[in-house]
Structure formats: C-alpha cells, structure tokens
Automatic annotation (TrEMBL):
One of its GO terms (biological process) is sterol transport. GO terms for molecular function: sterol binding. This is MD-2-related lipid-recognition domain-containing protein. PANTHER family: NIEMANN PICK TYPE C2 PROTEIN NPC2-RELATED, NPC INTRACELLULAR CHOLESTEROL TRANSPORTER 2. Keywords: Secreted, Signal. Residues 26-148 form the MD-2-related lipid-recognition domain. It is found in: Secreted. Belongs to the NPC2 family. It comes from Allacma fusca. InterPro entries: ML_dom (IPR003172), NPC2-like (IPR039670). The keyword Signal applies.
Length: 151
C-alpha cells in the first residue's frame, strides 16, 4: 500500500484558496511564492480520478518570492485521516525547459514529472496529496493540495 501511495504522489505532484490557470484548480496552502498553474493529464476537475495502470504527467508552474541556490520538495498523502510521508528530494533536478538552480525571485519556473500508477494499487475513495517546494532558508515557495480518487 505504501508503494502505491508513493507512486500516486509522484503522479500527482504538485493544500487553502483555489488556484487555477488553464490547469486544474488545486488547493493552495500558505507559501511566500505564487503557485501559477498545475496541470495533470486526465484531470479537468476535482477530485481527480486516477485509474490504476495508467501513466500521468504533471506540470507545475510557480514564481518564487526570494532567491535560493537550491530547492527541495516534499510530498505527503492523507488517506482516511492518516498522513503518510511519500517522497522528498531535490526540486532543482525536476525543473523543466532547461531551467536550473539557483532560482531568482519573480522569475517563473516550471516543474515536469511523469509516473505510472501501478495496476496493483487498491482503490481509494478519498486521497489528498500535499506537495511543497521549499528554499534553502526553509521558506515555502509553492504549496498545493490535490484531492483525488483511485479507481
């Protein structure tokens, strides 16, 4: 089950005011930067419905409010009231379009990810993935929550 939830978080990355663009509306949490857009393949409205055995692609666009030489990301899942740690890592490694750290305040950045949701995952009626991008000063530059179901 833990491996499934971890895979789900990778597929959903990138918790409370609604944010949108041409992507899906997500729940924003407290951050000093601006979450611009979250795009998840196959998700046009909330909760996102994810099918086991499918590939998912995630694009997250944000604008930091502060310079930083590095970024890290952290993801958790709340499943049936239990918060589980999912993944953490270097967000500089997943910046898109040739962008690299250090990041500069006021410049728009994009993160791109892809993952497959295992076909052996159990169905989950209610899931909230929360992902944060944190700078070297432990300031949250972007934060989002994505309500989802797994079928």
């Amino acid at each position: 089950m833990y491996k499934f939830i971890r895979t789900t978080a990778i597929a959903l990355l990138l918790s409370l005011e609604l944010a949108s663009g041409s992507g899906v509306e997500v729940i924003k949490c407290n951050s000093i930067g601006q979450l611009e857009k979250v795009e998840v393949t196959g998700c046009e409205s909330l909760p996102c419905i994810f099918e086991r055995g499918q590939d998912y692609f995630i694009n997250v666009t944000f604008t930091p409010n502060g310079n930083s030489s590095n970024l890290r990301f952290n993801a958790t899942a709340n499943v049936y009231g239990i918060t589980l740690p999912l993944m953490a890592g270097n967000a500089c490694d997943i910046l898109a379009d040739g962008q690299k750290c250090p990041i500069k305040s006021g410049v728009q950045y994009k993160i791109k990810m892809a993952a497959k949701l295992t076909k052996f995952a159990p169905p989950i009626r209610k899931l909230l993935i929360k992902a944060t991008i944190v700078d070297e000063f432990n300031k949250i530059q972007a934060c989002a929550g994505l309500p989802a179901r797994v079928v």
